[in-house]
Amino acid sequence: MTTSDPAIRAPAVTVATSMYNAAATLAPAIESVLAQTFGDFEFLILDDGSTDESRAIAQRYAAQDSRIRLIAMPRQGLIRSLNQLFAEARAPLVARFDADDICMPQRFERQLAFLADHPDHGLVASETTFIDQRGAAASNPPIHRPLDHEAILGQLEGGPILCHSAVMVRTDLVRAAGGYRQAYIHAEDYDLWLRLAGQTRMANLPECLLAYRITASQVSTRHVVIQVRHAAIAWLAHCARRDTGRDPTAGLEALPGIDALDDLLGPGSAAYVRKRTIDRLLYAPDRLADDAWTDLIGHIADGAPKDRLWRVAMRLLKAGYPWRAALVAASLIRHAA
User: Fold this and answer.
1) Rounded CA gap, 127 and 38, in Å?
2) Rounded Cα distance, 19 and 11, in Å
3) N or C: which terminus of the chain has fewer CB atoms within 10 Å of its end residue's CB?
4) Residues 6+ apart with CB under 8 A from 76
């Protein structure tokens, strides 16, 4: 089957799911898609080299419902998997969906209706609820995302603007933008939203149309330092595109280290990335003592406000990092002069 086969009628929506070792959550995720009130979709499930029972579970569902197509691949990573899903999508709209989340029954119906009524919008997501590993309601505080395009633009720099797993987007827009970029690993969705923001209008529906699963193994927990660094670089690249029409990170397979950012993106870029990283991790002493340690010391050297960083030293001390706390204190004293 190819995306250009004229003998096969294209569905209205392609549901695009990449999975890796998702056996514990895959069945209810698939069933939530099959239970949609709008049924004219193809469901592409790309198995990214799983070593558990994920592939067998997807195969069982595919044998029961012809709308499901399983794409079995050796391990290639999420970004390449997502780009392959968009390349193989036959529908004019793609509904992104992660293999550990749950779609509310009217998700596709509501998002399709919005995009039909708003042809100037290329993307719509929604508010979400939260569930835990067992599928029970999680106690995480709600995230109130901006609803209309102007509000989204106002929060582009740092606010939670779109839930990736709840997005429905016009397929051609993502293809024309070049898809997800490998350099922005763990922030590939945010980088894409920034690039699309100048090409189309975006919105969030106020309804909670997705239950987002909170787990200890998710990217925003395991790779938060890389994620926030790359998101900060994506913002700087966005500003460069806006101001000069040129993206200094275009074509990069990997982003440079922080110390090289001033040469790539302009003076002050490294300090900006360090500040964004520390702002995100102020209350995470374990991260500050480990993955973000060089960011913290560099942030002090950048001339960051000292009061809050003395409080960081106290948090490190209370969390069981007396040597790190002493080094922060010494750095604060040294750079106070």
Assistant:
1) 19
2) 22
3) C
4) 48, 49, 84
Q: Are strands 168-170 and 93-96 parallel, antiparallel or unpaired?
A: antiparallel
Encoded amino acid at 126, one letter: S
Residue 269 belongs to what H/E stretch?
helix 269-281
Tell me the CA distances in angstroms from 181 to 12, 57, 208, 269, one per residue in order: 26, 30, 29, 20
Tens digits of residue pLDDT in 238-283: 999 999 999 999 999 999 999 999 999 999 999 999 999 999 999 9
Residue 23 CA: distances (Å) to CA of 78, 214, 306, 320: 17, 16, 47, 37
pLDDT by residue (tens digit) across 175-212?
A: 999 999 999 999 999 999 999 998 999 999 999 999 99
Neighbouring residues of 9: CB distance < 8 A, sequence distance ≥ 6: none
pTM of the model: 0.93
CATH 3.90.550.10 domain span(s) along the chain: 13-216
